[in-house]
Amino acid sequence: MHGRSSSPVSSGGKEFPVYLDKNENPFRLPPSLREEIRQLISSVDLNRYPDPEGKKLKQVLSELTGVSEENLVIGNGGDEILSMLFSAFIEKGSRVVSLSPTFSQYPELCRRHKAEWVPVNMEIGDKEINFDEDLFLATVTSYSPALILVDTPNNPTGKVISNNFLTRLAESASGVIVVDEAYGEFSSSTLLETFRNRLIPGKLCILKTLSKAWGMAGLRIGYAACSPSVSSGIEKVRDLYNVGLLSQEIGAIVLQYREWMESRVLSIRYMRDQLIQVINRIPGWHAYNSDSNFVLVRSDFSKSVLRDQMEEAAIHVKFLELDTPGNWFRVSIGREDELGRFVSLIEKVR
Asked: Which of 34, 147, 272, 346 is exposed most, by the fewest CB atoms within 10 A?
């Protein structure tokens, strides 16, 4: 991660793009898994519709999570499950409480469904990010939202919300509580783990995806572990064949490779922590601690200068508009050579 890497360049002399803007897993699937998928594709009957209930995939997910199959919902990525939650539980004028900043789809879904988005701001200080639990609970009590969305680790800050607080929230709120753990594997603990072999209570829904830690962003598989009332509500609005045949079959295979996933997660967490240390040694830059596979970065340099130099270097990061002084962006944890190019660039920004 020190200095410019020896990554290849195109025939025109311009370096190949580095994509650190979508929080993807940078590692390809292992050869043995790729071979299993190849054999599957050559044998599957694509003239047949997929299982509308996704029984095979749900069985594997149940074994993985300890949640009963009837309380699991599968979707075409986590985004579709979010859309189904809005369709099932939101009416025009309903209120939706979430963190701010947060996943951009939350306010977008509120706009589409004509709901009122009620953000609860986190405090982004010079060195750390703070979450006011009492303020969040007071907001929920005051607004009585139909839906509460808590992404943990939070996107884009990487801040993790404690399981104790989430349990308090689930016990006190009257609306549906969605705990979005899309990046949970990169954290030290998750709420889903606490419900292994237990019934998920009340109106709680824990959202997961195979796009991040499992490295299957192109396959589009999300799932939710829900209380009975939430899962039945989602099923009423779910399209019959919402997850394709190949996605179901490949997903069931990929989930057998948990050790591979966990080893890649450890690598990403190590590189994340190293990147934070390196950035914080560079004058004019600050990286915040993160429990995810991305890092929130603040720069004292002009956003237009940063954009121009990133574009020239073919490095893609996610620029952000935050209600806090400074120029902000989120950088995903890529491979070591990709992070080396990124660090080399920001060391030269003036």
From this structure: 34
